[in-house]
Structure formats: structure tokens, C-alpha cells
Amino acid sequence: MINKVVANADVAIADITNGKTLMLGGFGLCGIPENCISALVKKGVKDLTCISNNAGVDDFGIGLMLQQRQVKKMISSYVGENAEFERQLLSGELEVELIPQGTLATRCLAAGYGMPAIFTPAGVGTEVAEGKETRNFDGKDYLMEYAFDADFAIVKAWKGDTAGNLIFRSTSRNFNPVMAMAGKITIAEVEELVEVGELDPDHIHTPGVYVHRIFQGKDYEKRIEQRTVRKLAD
Amino acid sequence: MVEQSLSAARKSSHQLIIKLTNQKMLDKNGIAKRIAKEIKDGYYVNLGIGIPTLVANYIPEGVNVVLQSENGLLGMGPFPFEGEEDPDLINAGKQTITTLPGSSIFDSAMSFGMIRAQKIDLTILGAMEVSENGDIANWKIPGKMVKGMGGAMDLVASAKNIIVAMQHVNKAGESKLLPSCTLPLTGVKCIKKIVTELGVFDVLPEGGFKLLERAPGVSVDEIRKATAGKLYADDDVPEMVV
Q: Residue B70 catalytic?
């Protein structure tokens, strides 16, 4: 088996230079590649285009990269939890393309499946449709949306083996598997890195063929955005 | 011209709302309770953020439903007990939740795949405006709110059955049931039913809001004044049972 293991996040992102397009997995702060984001902040690489469902919060996730003005453009579906993001957007420092969440996910999927474009009804008749080709199938209009073209995809998995096979845990799966398939170079950070043979082939979510670099992550904070609990019954 | 008449309509609705606050209307839980009656046994349901989330609290006993959370979960359970929160297990509102026996987890592409393929029976979501031809606006206020549409555009474009749960008027006292939406659209001609604190409405295929039920203690006349769009009501509109 091909060994894809690199030492740490710094090594994994070493060739990410200014102006690159990155996909970052996660939904809210759930399943985000914390180690790689820290390494990108430390490296100080700039003018990045980031494709990610959300933009983190002010002091965590992609919010850390926004604080350092490392992001030139965000492509997201929902960016509501970040005051610094909103400030940069309204002042024109940050370019933002808001797209429907399903369109975002499926444009990743298309890239990973080798399809140049998809047709989706999401956004028909809205400003999302402006300038896009529309096709009618069976009486219903669909927008043509292109597969993403990203230099790097950075994902977080629960377990992975040295050959790059990945398993995700619970709803931290979200965008991670589809982004893992979509990057020209895919970097995976995992909570537990194991030897080949230790993961059941039937349980693999992302086959290692899609993953170019993998490393054992550390110090996961896994911050909760909305801690909601129920009371024990009296 | 259209805007002028719209603002006139809004002005009159504004005046009415001041009076309406003295009436016995439904609160958010009342709206949720009424919508819960639309849920049938065996439904897969997607609940949006806000009032729709409350609907889960009122699903009648014996009605088995599976709640979808579009970040990748079918079979959303209640909030966890304190100390049992799992940061890897959240809903689309980023709240900590639990799974249930029979739950399944999947990625975001599959989540919207099942939405697009109409495997979800019912979608309940909030709105800022609904027009009398069924257009909905709920994601953007130009120059003010730039949060994004999340999954709303996918849901309204594909769902076979959508109920809008919302207040009848906005915070400024303006009607949210309009001849046409003034805010950027989320979807066109997709809303068929609306439940507000004043009543239950169908959006007619030929255009216009048809009043199906009045909230307890609210008259047709009051509802008419609070509705900027075309309203159709029979002589004898039944009172909502909640």
C-alpha cells in the first residue's frame, strides 16, 4: 500500500501558497480541520479563496483566517455567526459568493465523480440564477452549476489509515467526504491514525485513492456552537 | 406605482396591528401546535430554524415521524441530557442533539440528494415574505442581513409539500403576505400553505391567499386588514382548533 502519512499539519500544508483555492470541510464548527487551519494561520498565506459551508465564528475555525485577512474570497451557503466576516464583507475587503447548500455539496460531488456540471432547481428565479444557463427537463427549470475546481481540499476525519482510507464520525461527516473527493490535492487530518488492515474495508467512507496526505491530528477543541440540553425528568 | 400602493397597504396593516396586540392571538407555540396537525404517520420531515423547530414538541402521540437535519441526519432525537453533549452530533441549527434507534448519518451531498429527489414528505420553514403566487423570501435583506440561504433554496425548489410558519406581520408592523415579494427571492411559486398567529392559508394556484381557518378570537375582517395580498375568505370560516 502507498504510504500517505506526513508528520503534521505544517508539513501537510507546506505547498499551499498565496492565491490558492481551498475547500475546507465541516458544518458550523463540527468536523472542521482544526490543525490545518491553525497551520495556515501560522504560515500566514494570503489571498485565498475558501470554499466552505460556513465561515467559522470570530475566534475559531475559518474566523481565525479572516482575522488575519488571509481570505480574499469565501464561497459559502451560510455565514451568519461571524461579526468580523460581516464587517469585511460590508467594507468590501472580502469577496463573498453565497450559494445554496445543496448546490455547494453537489458541485463537490461532481468534481469527485468526474462530471463537469450538474443541474439543480435550487435558485431558479432568484439572484443565484443570474448569468447561469437554464435547462428545462420535463417541464421544470434547472440551473447548470459547474463542478468545483479546487487546488486543495482539507478535511477532518475520525479515523484514517496510512493508505488514506477515511471513516467519519456522526454528523461531523457533513461536507468532509464530498470535499475529500473534490480536491486536486486532498489533505486529511484524523483523530486516530492506524496501520493499513486495521479498518474494515466495508466501513470506509472515503477510499484512500482520493486522499494524498494524511496525518495524526492533535489537541482537538471541538468547540460547540449551540450547547442545548434537556433537563432530567423530575 | 406598485410600491406606492404596497406601502399604503402596509401602512394600514401597521395601524391594525397596534389594535391586534390586544387580541387573543396564537403565540409561536400555538403556530407550531397547529402545524403539527399537518404531520401524518410515516412522514419524513425537515424542520427549519425558528418556529418550525418548535413543531417537534407537538407531534401527536402515535404519529411516527422521522426528522431530517440537512447537515446529514435522519432520525433526529431530543437535546442531550447535560453532560452528554457530543460536539460531533449537531443539527442544522448547530445545536447539540441526539440520535434515536433507527437513525442514519450521511454526507451533505446525499442529504440534499434525498431532498431533491423528493424523498422528504414535508418541509416546514420560516419566511420574511410570501407572495400571493407562492414566491418566498427568507434569506437576505440587502444592505442589512447577509447571512446566506443555507439549505433553504434547495428545500423550496424541490420539496413537494412546504408549509411556511411565520408571524403574519414583521417587527415594523408590515404584512408578510404580499401581492409580490419585495426582498430577494428564495424560490418561486413553491409555497402552498401558510400558518400564522392569525390563521391558516392556502396559496391558490391562480394566485391569492385563501383563508382556511381563523385563529381563536380573530375575525376575518382583522385578517383581511393585516394581509396586503389578495385574500379570499368564505362567509363562514371555521375557528382553528389547537
A: yes
